[in-house]
Amino acid sequence: MLQKVIKTLLLILFISLSCHAQKNRQLSNPPKYEFRAVWIATVENIDWPKRGEHDSDQQKLDFIRILNEHKRSNLNAVMVQVRDACDSYYARSVEPWSEFLTGQQGKFPNPFYDPLSFMITEAHDRNLEFHAWLNLNRATFRRATSVTPDHISNRKPEWMLTYDGQKLLNFGIPEVREYITNVVLDIVKHYDVDGIHFDDYFYPYQVTGQVLRDEATFRKYNNGFTNIEDWRRNNTDLLIFQISEAIKKNKPHVKFGISPFGVWKNYSTATPEGSRTQAGQTSFGHLYADTRKWLSQGWIDYIAPQIYFDRLHAKVPYKELSKWWMENAFGKHLYIGHGVYKIKTGWSLTEAPSQIRLDRQFPQIDGGLFFSSKSLTENYGGFQDSLRTDFYRKPAIIPAMPWKDNIPPLAPKKVFITRNEIGNPILTWQPGEVASDGNENTYYAVYRFERAEIPDFQRVDKMLYVGRQNTFTDSTAEKARGYVYHITSFDRLHNESNTSAKATIEYGEK
To answer: Which residues contact 363 (CB under 8 A, 6 or more apart)?
Structure first.
């Protein structure tokens, strides 16, 4: 009996010390402005929809669950894959429905719905930016079980390159570039997306024993180039520029971003502008994607390099590569792509948290993205817990892009305060007028200060609410305290109003 009592007392002591240590450990200092996003992959049903789940209502419920998880983690954007292999997850498309959505390519959702429209609405309801993520080059998937007769690979076989068991669009053909641009424009024109997002697949990663047979296209459309590799890079340049211009012309507020393979070029005496890495393949040399050029020319608004390497990597160390991107972002936004899926395959549990701490030391890094969604929703290595209890415990505002919009919205007005049944203040306000550039209030932030405090709107700890509703209940208010509430507004490109609506609760007010 005595031994059991001692064991119990020791267990209580251990729990007490653990809780004390947890309570007093040094937490990070979350910034007010930070892009926090996750890739939601649809290809092979990686994240959504669940494999074999073809009922539309269940798909909707599952997507809502995913968004709710990420909203609880204070993420503020999602990159959702809506084109896997010249297919689609949206109704307004010239390409067939994806087999990963309905089980068979070309088959309509049942009951019918438009997944993209649904997903955008649900994301915006939670004040999450929605970036439509498209694969550019893949026409057929290596393990595809169905390809429709009217699929582009069957309608236009002369547009195809065959490489490593799959068909790819041939960027060297002008009509192919026009086709891809129109696919993007179908989304931009018909859906309320916040961004268009491409991954690292341009020309294919090199596979031993495989040869890319585009010599005939080179001879026909060489545009004066004598080197086929320079020509391929120019094809990709032409495509990115064409898409960039089309987006700006049709909806200038829509962001355009690329998530390339992490290494643009390795450093050498011949290429001193490259990163001090030793990657086996590079974006410039093997994928024919001159992403650095696209930034320098202002064709894209953000870059999200996939730096899926740990800090101690022998050939591609994380810090060295992220530092190179900081020096080569040319004033555009830099979001680091984190390979947190590797937590399940050997990454140290401290690696991803350490990378976030490192990122936050440098103002040139505007935030990060995580691959992929289930790495967070399944809480690999407790990483989602770390976001919620530490790094992302407070909400953050997506950094503004002044080259797209630098006019702030007008502040909300006429704040009313009532009380709920237990006495908590309920703030309700009216949206501000339309700003000089036509932008309306898209969402709001509520700040709370003590009566004698000088308002400091950079203090994240004073920001109680960020969202699209024009009402907020302060459940943490103390009844005998006096507060001053300030409500500011943001437009859809995250410019904050210069002034705020204000409401005061006096000391002792019941």
So the answer is: none
Give the Cα separation of 218 and 232 in Å (integer).
9
Q: Is 26 exposed, middle or buried (0-12, 13-18, 19+ CB in 10 A)?
A: exposed
| Conformation bin of residue 331: beta by default, left when phi > 0, alpha when psi is -120 to 50 | left
Q: Looking at this protein, which amino acid is placed at residue 299?
A: W
Which alpha helices (DSSP H) does 221-316 contain, by range?
228-250, 291-296
Say which amino acid occupies 139.
A
Beta carbons of 442 and 492 less than 8 angstroms apart: yes
Residue type, 420: N
Cβ contact 168:138 at 8 Å:
yes
CA separation for the pair 294, 414 (Å, rounded): 45
* Helix, strand, or coil (residue 35): strand
Nearest one of 324, 227, 244, 345 to 285, comparing CA atoms = 227
Give whole-number Cα distances, 445 to 112, 154, 469, in Å.
Answer: 37, 51, 10
Per-residue pLDDT tens over the stretch 292-323:
999 999 999 999 999 999 999 999 999 999 99
Q: pTM for this one? A: 0.94
Cα 341 → chain centroid: 16
Ranges of residues in the chain with a pLDDT under 70 are 1-25, 507-510
Chain centre to alpha carbon of residue 322:
18
Name the strand (E) or helix (H) holding 37: strand 35-40
pLDDT score of 26: 78
Residue whose pair of structure tokens reads 């251990």 in the numeric block = 14
User: pLDDT at position 479, please?
Assistant: 80
Q: Which DSSP string do the residues of 342-389 spell out, in sequence order?
A: GGGGT--TTHHHHHHHHHTT-TT--EEEES-HHHHHTTGGGHHHHIII
